Amino acid sequence: MILVGEEPASTADARWCLDRYAADLERLFPEGFDQSRGNRLDPANILPPHGYFVIARLDGRPIGCGALKRLDPRTGEIKRVWTAEAARGQGVARKIMDALEGLARAQGFKRLRLDTNRALAAAQAMYRKMGYREIPPYNDNPYAHHWFEKRL
What we know:
Helices cover 27% and strands 32% of the residues. By secondary structure, it is α+β, with helices and mostly antiparallel strands. It has a single domain, classed as Aminopeptidase (3-Layer(aba) Sandwich), CATH 3.40.630.30.
């Protein structure tokens, strides 16, 4: 059974997930991925009530993660949704998104935003299927080509 739970982004398992996330993007993005160019996620900035981090686990092992960051009192931003390659196709990312949306609702957010790269077609399809609609850019993430929003 896949379980998704809130944990600090500073734990060893969280760092492991975030390192694998960055390695996957480095491999997938034609221009590579350098966190220092922008789109940085500081674990200290995603602590409640300003942010939340979740880890998906299978048999106690981390297989995915995601973050929710407060943009303003009514708006949250979803970041770093990632699933380990061996666990893809099992609905892990959807479970992570559901958990993050639940946290957003509990915090009173009225909308969620996220951005993604053109190379992540499966992620874009999932976001659209979950009711996210494409919007104009709301940030200057150098790796983003698509921006989405969902009203809660």
